[in-house]
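MATE efflux family protein structure dump, as promised
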Amino acid sequence: MVILNSNPKSDPENTESTLISFDFSNELENSDSRLNHSIFANNTYNANNNEEDDGGDENDYNSNKNTNLLETQHTYISNDSKSKLKLNLNDSYGSVVDNQINEETLTLVSVDNTSILKEIQGITKSSMPLMVTFLLQRSFSAVSVFFVGHLGKTELGAVTLGSMTANITGISIIIGLATCLDTLCSQAYGSKNYKLVGVYCQRCIALLLTIIIPILLFWIFLSESFLNLILSDKKLSSLSASYLKINSIGMPGFILFECLKRFLQSQGIFHASTYVLIFCSPANILLHCLLIYNKSTSIGYLGAPLAVAINYWLMPLGLILYLVFNNNPINPLKCWNGLNIRQAFKGWSRIITLAINGIIMIVSEFLAFEILTLSSSYLSLSSLAANSVIMSIISITYQLPFSIAIAVSTRLANYVGANLVEKCKNCVKAGIILSLIMGLIDAIVLFSFKENISRFFTNDEEVLNEIYKCITTLTVIQIFDSMNAITSGILRGEGMQEIGSITNLSVHYLIGIPVSFFLGFKMNLRLNGLWIGMMVGLTVVSVIQGYYGIIKPNWDSLIRLARYRTEIERNI
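structure tokens r here:
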């Protein structure tokens, strides 16, 4: 229970209690009023002394809107506009500081005094299960490369090109659009509008299932013709198209998993997807063995995309079972008000802007990397195979800073939704520190174990030599790729995906890719030159995103926008 008392000093001295103070000025008597919202925890403080620490938040509301808003939360305003309120938030909306919330969520949105060190500890704790989750999730494609890589160069190249096309035209769009939930669900949860969290999740699922239909039709009926236009090797085109056709079976399941994963993460539940993937990852290996190498069940090369497609359906099934049968005291189903088809297919305009910018952020970066893959095919088959291994390595190492980015994004969005400005600032600083640490760790591990890691994917000496030529460049890339991941997460938490979309779209294609082509083909640095250009692009992107996400944000404006998004649908 959370108590709002007219005299904070008279509140019983209970270090476990939490005081939330709303101070209405005389302006409430007029048409406009300003709402100063301060949150204290662990100890009680005078509200006026803490307004500067939390940054305050100023929003214009008329008195009717204030009354209606508070009434929907079962609150009461005294006739004296100067008086404080007494609220009981132990209702259907719940509270982010309710005693029922478990330690994981308390770490995420705890309202005690903050520091950069505390934020580092909280982010690290939240990101640990995410690291396992994303590493296991990315292992699906790495396992395919591993098994198919031992079938031959052509099959390895086909898996690479098939997954490249899937990433550009499908997976990147799904992930990009789903990133809107990092902002919307987390900010709604931070503002304690729990039902809206579930509504946003349903809308995102409905929107993605609608968008994916023409994409799957392209994969099934037009992909081979398209690939024949850009590739000279017809067998390579045919095998790549077959990969897409079979992989299309699993795409609806992948959509459900990405949205449900973010639905849980916005509530501070990061371990659920880890539990699911701990089961699905060995299942993926087993399926590859059965469908590729086992004589009685093998279907050869096509076993790789089929194994991945089956796992794409097992993953959301696992999350649904967790939602139904979990005994987590946070009770994630409190944010699920039942399946509502009418709500799922309305209000898309309120998420479409964030979704489009999220898609541009993800797709532009995905496409930039995949252009390198396509470009490497014009160097030699060995370069294409080497680039396939490099992409698998880069994808795996990226999951570590990306996990931190998701934790930062979710945590930051919760703070924005709860109007906690100082916590927002410290969360951002902590994220940058962790990104540098993680980038250095990735770089050191990759450089120290380059031979062992490379030989895990292939035994072809010609391919290995191509990889070794790029190792120094790949080591440096780890640092800037880590910074890129964290700054993107910060922008998502702030709801500033537009900055990220413009930056990624312009920098990669005006700077990164041209430099790659110049060094790779004109200067004859070949595959290493292509990756040096990518390193330049990532460096510029991380600097620009860092400037707008860390140095320049207007927290008052971001909080007002988050409140607007939440309050406009308060009564759904």
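The first helix runs from residue 47 to 50.
lmk if u need the other ones
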